[in-house]
Amino acid sequence: MSLINQLIATVLAVLLGLVLSTLYILSDSSRETLLTQLESHAEDSATHLGLYLAPYMQEHDQATIATAVNAIFDSGFYQEINVTDSDNNILYNKVYDPASSINAPNWFIHLMPITPPEKVRKIAYQWQQVGSIHVRSRAGYAYEKLWQGVRNALIMFVSLSVLSALILSWLMRHLLRPLQGVEHQAMALARREYIEQPTLPRTRELRQVVSAMNLMVRQVQLMFDEQNRNIESLRSTAYRDSLTGLNNRRATLTQLTEHLEYRQDFGPASLIIFHLNDLQSLNHTLGEDATNHLIRNYAQGVQALAQSLGTHVVGRIGGADLALLAQRRSFDDWQLLLDPLLRKTQNQLQQQGADTEANIISIGIASCDSNTTAEQLLTQARLAQQEAEQGSDSSIVLYHAHQHQQGWSEQWQRHVASAIHNEQIFLQQQALLDSEDRCIHAEVFARILDQDNTPCQAGDFFGVARDLNLLEKIDRAIVKHALQFLQQNPDSPTLSLNLANQALAEQTFIDWLLHTLEHSGVTDRLSIEINETAILTHMERIKTLRQALGELNIRFGVDNFGTHPNGFSYLYALRPDYLKIDGSLVRQIDHSDEDRFFVSSLISVAHSLEIKAYAEHVERETQRLELEKMKIDGTQGYLHGMPSTLS
């Protein structure tokens, strides 16, 4: 029961007690008054009746006596009238019918016992005693009059009580409205939302409570903001290059491995190494500050280029070296994209008075199909960069072993497109386990068969699907197959589906998805995951989708969490059910203090928002042990087994 209702009930209970006590006292007083009146009335009646009946009593005229007694008996005040002669022989006796009911409740009669008064009058006529008259008053009359008064008082009390309750309720709600605001503040604070009440109540005690709550909200907000700043500072220290603001060498190499060897989300990719030639000479000619300014400017140019290419990895891997990983393009396309950056850097050097005849930047490009390791691709790009630096006619060199590659073969594109259009897609699953090896859910991966009817990895066909704008069709097929599997296997674990950025950009797909899920009947065994980059790209649309999924009892998760440069402030507004910490942050967690501290901070942030934190791409038991020390809620990766066919 709410505080307001408790106060109202307490006040009404006190009033009820007071009224009932008052009614009892008034009823008792009224009872005594009525008894006195009945006693007086009985005495008067006996006196007047005796004066009238005296001669008839002497003559024993029973007819006249009966007529007179009956005449006054019907007034209802009497229980019994008894007329006797001088020898106590009954001349006439009139008694009230005991079968007649009293117009009052039985509980009231038992609560207020009344003993009716009785009066006896000796009657004399002509100085001779002729008999006596006994008059007993009727208690029913007293009960009826007393109950009538109590009933009227109760009716008035109930009416006034209802009116008072309404007025009291309005008054209490008005006076205690600030407490509702405090409750709202406390609930919002638990969700990491910071709300202050701008208007302070006039009541001193309530004003102090509201002021204290506002102060606490400000203090907690400062504390949480400080925590976030510390985590972001740690991210910058551990994973950011202080000069350029890009990923440092360690973070860049880790993310290259993550994208090329695990996610394979680029498909065929190109890795570009930018090298600032003869850095020592530039420091000597321009000075260290000017050279650092030059490096920052050309790093900003590389970052701007990377952002225009879609999904990418960019970072600084050495004093004068930057690396960029993006979807594969032809050599001619790369030249068109990179020439403006070269000219801009050359112009900057010319403005600073440096010798611009030689190439200031050498660029090496290596392209690959799927199943190429990050180390192999880095070596190939480095060889091409060194060729450009050591006297090539061009500042841009493509690794020669791949110069013939211009993209997907038409035959493979037709095969992938046919498989997707015909929904020739099958699903694999990989379990997410808690610390006791219980399955939390199974993440679903899409696969197709190649021309040799051999299952191929996502990296072999997702790039083609992306280029052909078919990712939405893949997601539709995944959703259909997963729902069909859940409907046919009621004892299967929850399935987690990962939606593509390209599909989420289409409102028609989201509308179809929600309609399909709503009519599936298995929404309580389904989770939807969205990549962190996709969330930040379509924030408002994802918020709407997340709310709709919550109404369908579908869990919502953030995939590849923790690597986006914009941080994780979006968690406060989105409130996912869980997040999966990116595998690049987990890879060296059993060897790196920085990774351990950063991942531990991410888990703490998630738990403070009541969000489950899971880790993906866990391959070693030592990684799992470190994560469990940090209170991770679940782990997923090859440690628990390779993906298996969903069947």
Automatic annotation (TrEMBL):
Residues 173-225 form the HAMP domain. Residues 409-647 form the EAL domain. It holds the Pfam family GGDEF. Keywords: Membrane, Transmembrane, Transmembrane helix. It comes from the Bacteria. Residues 267-401 form the GGDEF domain. The chain crosses the membrane at residues 6-26, 153-172. InterPro entries: Cyclic-di-GMP_PDE-like (IPR050706), EAL_dom (IPR001633), EAL_sf (IPR035919), GGDEF_dom (IPR000160), HAMP_dom (IPR003660), LapD_MoxY_N (IPR032244), LapD_MoxY_peri_C (IPR042461), Nucleotide_cyclase (IPR029787). PANTHER family: CYCLIC DI-GMP PHOSPHODIESTERASE PDED-RELATED, CYCLIC DI-GMP PHOSPHODIESTERASE PDEF. NCBIfam families: GGDEF (TIGR00254). This is LapD/MoxY N-terminal periplasmic domain-containing protein. It comes from Marinobacterium maritimum.
